[in-house]
């Protein structure tokens, strides 16, 4: 059967791709190259206790969860220590949203990149 087996990538427009790549690298530790790309290999980092997952989730068109109404998608980045990363981002002058959320899936926080894109930062619950 022909079917989808996973997410191959996340692509979005940037007014200044080179500058945005540096911002993601310097502030979030995303190891982007000079062309603004990075590939994460789950097989390299997954374990039996921490399998590594990627989620697709659909939201109603009128949701404010994704940020401003013109933002059609939101990047969700898996992080290893949400509290420390949010403090680091604030210290660097990055716009960090004041609320965080704890759920059965883990802890969530949000920041905004220089082009106004809301980014969700996710520290997974144990075993996710």
Automatic annotation (TrEMBL):
TM spans (from-to): none
An example of a GO molecular function for this protein is: dioxygenase activity
- Print the keywords alphabetically: Dioxygenase, Oxidoreductase
Q: Which InterPro entries does this chain map to?
A: Anthracycline_SecMetBiosynth, Glyas_Bleomycin-R_OHBP_Dase, Glyoxalase_6, VOC_core
Q: Which residues form a coiled coil?
A: none
> In the UniProt record, does the keyword Nucleotide-binding occur?
no
* The keyword tRNA processing is annotated on this UniProt entry: no
In this chain the VOC domain maps to: 6-124
Q: What is this protein called?
A: Glyoxalase/bleomycin resistance protein/dioxygenase superfamily protein
Organism the protein comes from: Umezawaea tangerina
């Amino acid at each position: 059967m022909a079917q989808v087996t996973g997410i191959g990538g996340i692509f979005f427009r940037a007014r200044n791709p080179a500058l945005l790549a540096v911002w993601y690298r310097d502030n979030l530790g995303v190891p982007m190259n000079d062309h603004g790309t990075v590939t994460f290999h789950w097989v390299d980092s997954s374990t039996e206790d921490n399998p590594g997952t990627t989620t697709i989730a659909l939201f109603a068109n009128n949701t404010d969860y994704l940020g401003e109404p013109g933002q059609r998608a939101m990047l969700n980045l898996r992080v290893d220590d949400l509290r420390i990363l949010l403090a680091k981002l604030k210290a660097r002058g990055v716009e960090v949203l004041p609320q965080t959320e704890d759920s059965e899936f883990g802890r969530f926080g949000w920041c905004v990149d220089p082009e106004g894109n809301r980014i969700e930062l996710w520290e997974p619950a144990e075993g996710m």
